[in-house]
Amino acid sequence: MIAGYNISPTCVRAAVISYSDNAVVNIELNRFNNRNSLQQAVRQLTLLNGGSSLANAFNLLRTRVFVSNVIRQGTALIAVVVTDQIRADQQLTNEANSVKGQGIRVIAVGITRQGRVDTNTLFGVSTNNYAVSVTDYNQLSGAVSSVTQRWGCFPVPTTSPPVIGN
Fold first, then answer.
1. I need a labelling partner for 66 at 20 to 30 A (CA). Which of 29, 116, 127, 156 fits?
2. Per-residue pLDDT tens for 44-78?
3. Which of 63, 61, 72, 83 is nearest to 15 (CA)?
4. What is the CATH number of the domain that holds 58?
5. 37 in a structural domain
6. Distance between CA 57 and CA 106 in Å, rounded?
7. Which domain covers residue 57, as residue numbers?
């Protein structure tokens, strides 16, 4: 996913949250200033064992990653969720709605091989059904490429100055 973006302090910045039963911010939003160093750091992360509390990850996204003192004015806020287990849960629904209510666009990618992805919930936590599912991790590369091209860039909302004269 990172390869599709120009990671820099003035363009795209990225953070990484890992989650299982709990969630942790592995990479803070302003930590890496280029694509190569961010990719290297992501490769060094280890997968967490345990359950899947995406609700906790959404909470961290709102309260620790996309906070007003870190976000540049007029920035498009995009969160990409990659999961191999997601089930309907009221806490998850509430947290997803809180994230989306703050103007964060959520893109979801589900890996369905083990039968632990409820696709209705996957699409439900995403913004405007920005979600895809693949059967296994080998297809993940193609899926994230598709996601990057389809939904990974959004125009930043702006207001037009008033028109004066004829």
1. 116
2. 998 888 888 999 999 999 999 998 777 888 788 88
3. 61
4. 3.40.50.410
5. yes
6. 12
7. 2-151
